[in-house]
Specification:
This is YbaB/EbfC DNA-binding family protein. The protein is 54% helix and 16% strand. The chain is an alpha+beta fold. A hairpin with a 4-residue loop joins strand 2 and strand 3. Helix 1 (7-33) runs antiparallel to helix 2.
Amino acid sequence: MAREIDEAWIDEAIERYRRVEDLRAEFDRAVSAHSVSVHSPDQSIEVVVTAAGTIVDVRLHGELRHRVPAEFAAEIKAVVVSAAEAARWAREKLHGEVFGSFRTLEGH
């Protein structure tokens, strides 16, 4: 027995696939372009990170000569961890903005 092909459903699935690809490209562009600035707990280090997780700048504020190396290293680690968390947060927010209104094929 031959099975009927629902051409309208196939056309809709193809269109949805194209839309997903377009949204994915938009999302990829957004995470690369969006950046977040994060500071160390003592405000002496600033890291700028994209939502994709790429560190694009590190800025040091204040005098470094009298810093205790172990404390300075701890500040660097803290701000890099914060930058990774900020990038994840920014990605999630952008994902919601880009894909938020996209409905699934379930129930069709």
